Amino acid sequence: MPLTPEQLADIDASRQNPQPTLRAVAPGMEQHLYTAQPVLDHGFVRVIDYMGDDAAIVQAARVSYGAGTKKARDDSGLIRYLMRHWHSTPFEMCEIKLHVKLPVFVARQWIRHRTANVNEYSARYSILDREFYIPAPEHLAAQSTVNNQGRGEVLQGAEAARVLEVLKADSARAYDHYEEMLSQEGQAGLARELARMNLPANVYTQWYWKVDLHNLFHFLRLRADAHAQFEIRVYAEAIAEMVKDWVPAAYGAFEDYRMGGVNLSGKAVEVLKRRLAGETVTQEASGMSKGEWREFEGVFG
Q1: Active-site annotation holds for 46
Q2: Same domain, 193 and 206
Q3: Catalytic residue among 46, 192, 223, 258
Q4: Number of domains within the chain
Q5: Same structural domain for residues 17 and 69?
Q6: Exposure check for the chain: N or C terminus, fewer CB within 10 A?
Q7: Could you read off the pLDDT of 142-182 as tens digits, one per residue?
Q8: Is the domain of 24 the same as that of 128?
Q9: pLDDT per position as a tens digit, 86-116
């Protein structure tokens, strides 16, 4: 169970006590409020609060009040224009606050996105639960031979079983020692802030993460990408589904221009022009590095 009985009771109480409001409400996001979306083996993402919608983006761009006489398709066109030309400020008018439960090593990667407000569960004041991320067999992979940041072939048979056993045994042993070291009920031992240093990076933590839509899109562009590490990508994908329901016009533009689009260097544009003119262009004649050329060919062949 990813949520504690206390958290579930809090969710039930919140959902059973809706309050009237005059603020803008996004019907698609209302269905996600408080509900936990399971991620990995013990993790989850849930929406705690949000502000704004597609109309808030348009309103900020026009610096006007009310719906006015503009039609929905005009609003969508404006949002696409803003996305296409990298006008970020109107997207900052929307914000979302998430409650996330995630492994510590994923949190350390996630926190590199420094444009959010974060408050994490404190192991100085509280005792962490005995919960560890253990990858499913299909996600156990060797180091890639061509990418220093990626994975290669999936481990098979006895090797996969050996690695899984090591992960489980080390996690259990570390937590056993953590419990043994803790000062509890007046007994001698280590303070919580010291005992926690023995825990592995796959132990679960929790935090509240509040971010505006512009910076959330940047997070999703990197972390929901197929090349992102699986363990953070599944969180990004879960959040993306919520954002799609929250601001459908903005998410559609983001999906088209950021996730589905390609940014080209001046050299790449020149190569495309030369190709369209009928010229055969090689990597050596392109002015691009081998890495740039490989990425270029990956898109354009």
Answers
A1: no
A2: no
A3: 223
A4: 3
A5: yes
A6: C
A7: 877 766 667 778 888 899 899 999 999 999 999 999 998 88
A8: yes
A9: 999 999 999 999 999 999 999 999 999 999 9
